[in-house]
Amino acid sequence: MSNRRSFLKKTVIGSSVIIPSLIHSACQSDIREIGENYKPLILSTWEHGMAANDKAWDILTKTGDIVEAVEQGVKVTELDLKNLSVGLQGLPDREGIATLDASIMKGDGSCGSVAFVRQVKHPISLARKVMEETPHVMLAGEGARQFALAQGFPMEEETLSPRAEELFQEWKKTSEYKPIINIENHDTIGMIALGADGKLAGSCTTSGLAYKMHGRVGDSPIIGAGLFVDDEVGAATATGLGESIIRICGSFLIVELMRQGHSPQEACEEAVRRLISKNKDIDNIQAGFIAINKDGEYGAYAVRPGFNFARHHFESQELVDAKSKF
Ligand code: SD4
């Protein structure tokens, strides 16, 4: 009992943000000793993951509905006007059109995704509809848009956000494609969550690389590349140059490495090593991974510095800098 008290004290003092109601419920039933792993646990890529995690955490802890949590969580980012890599306000392709990719997956193998979809404000919700309402896993392009219409999704005007329009006009002066590491091209949100019941789910949504070729699809909607979840093992998601991640089936690779006994951190590091070995022009590539195993251990690793992720558990909500290879 005294151990538990001292842990609670450390929790209160050591946390960046405290949620009183959660501490209260922790007092009643759910205290973990120092060193024990965390359930529930939510990780999301980049700083915008903080707000997304807040939403997901609220849903997960109130309802226990992990799929709803990972969907609603990343919807916050899809609406964030400051984010130029997620949602319709994101930077467009070379033709000046915003096209979106998204995926969602449960630990029982259910999954859905949409790729190269236009005019849909919440591609993550469309991906969920693919998972729940169709016999398919992935819908792309006009077919995905038609499915959205049939499901009653409103169609948005195809006008760029003022900031995206400004940057696009600037880019058109040279029309040179040079990815800028950690800046405009790398802000996808990938979220992975572990519920108190040990079930896992994940979501990933992006407008993809800025000024990509029309029709280009990245890793985010590809199950196994941008996202993979297995209740028997854990979950992983990716951000960064999608082509480099697809080449190594990054998220699937991490889950399989964890299945073989590696910790989430070791698995993320091995995936980055593999990515570096399979991609030329590594000087111009950034990619990062986050992973959780079913015991509530987690890890993160990137090719180069600058990648961070948001971590929520019952004791605190933090933005954490990931380690990197270079
Ligand atoms: C893509 N992986 O389409 C995405 C981009 C990204 O953070 O992650 N940005 O390649």
TrEMBL record:
Cellular-component GO terms for this entry: cytoplasm
Signal peptide: none
Residues annotated as binding substrate: R216, V217, G218, D219, T239, G240, L241, G242
Domain of life: Bacteria
GO function terms (MF aspect): hydrolase activity, acting on carbon-nitrogen (but not peptide) bonds, in linear amides
InterPro entries: Ntn_hydrolases_N, Peptidase_T2
Site (Cleavage): D187, T188
Active-site residues, record numbering mapped to chain: T188 (nucleophile)
A Pfam family reported for this protein in Swiss-Prot or TrEMBL: Asparaginase_2
Protein name in the entry: N4-(Beta-N-acetylglucosaminyl)-L-asparaginase
Protein's organism: Belliella pelovolcani
